[in-house]
Amino acid sequence: MNNVRYSEEAIARVIAERMGEESTALDLSRLDLHVLPESLSELAHLTELDLSDNQLTSLPQSLGNLTHLTKLDVSNNRLTALPESLGNLTGLDALTARGNMLTGLPESLGRLVNLNWLSLEHNRLTALPESLGGLTHLTRLNLYGNLLTSLPESLKGRFAS
């Protein structure tokens, strides 16, 4: 991890440097980012966004404007919550949020109807929203290393061991 702390303007420059005109993927991992600029939400054509291995404590609600995303990785940050607006990302196939400090999940994740992969291991989750049971395409659910004592009824038949 580097010791550089980027300003919002510097982050915007990094985004511009890493985004080609035709590019649909953006890798902002391992930059020691503490905040994300609102301008990130203007990259509506993005299909993949990697924000892993930073120092993010929250994600902007505007992230929900990236409705073409199919893959989002926010692993290994300092997140305690995910924004409700992530429920707008109905094309999302994979959401990876392992290694954070999440204590709960928004009900809106139940709207991610195309989600196939949900990786939430090594957080502080004590419960999951019942709405996750409506994710009929979900085939991989990783919950290892949380504080869960049970699964919602809507998931028990599919993922209980």
Tell me about this structure.
The protein has helices spanning 8-18, 153-159; strands at 25-27, 48-50, 71-73, 94-96, 117-119, 140-142. With 161 residues, the chain is mostly loops. A 6-stranded parallel beta sheet has the order 1-2-3-4-5-6, with no helix packed on it. The protein is globular and about 45 Å long. The mean pLDDT is 90.
The value of Rg in angstroms is 16 Å
Q: From the helix content, strand content and strand pairing, which structural class follows?
A: little secondary structure
H/I helix tally: 2
Give the strand order of the largest sheet, numbering strands 1, 2, ... along the chain. 1-2-3-4-5-6
Percentage of residues assigned to helices: 10-25%
Question: Tell me about the biggest sheet?
Answer: 6 strands, parallel
Which range does the strand content fall in?
5-15%
- What order do the SSEs take from the amino end to the carboxyl end, as H and E? HEEEEEEH
Mean pLDDT across all amino acids: 90
Quaternary assembly: single chain
Overall geometric form: globular
Which residues form runs of ≥5 with pLDDT under 50?
A: none
CA distance, first residue to last residue: 37 Å
How many strands in all?
A: 6
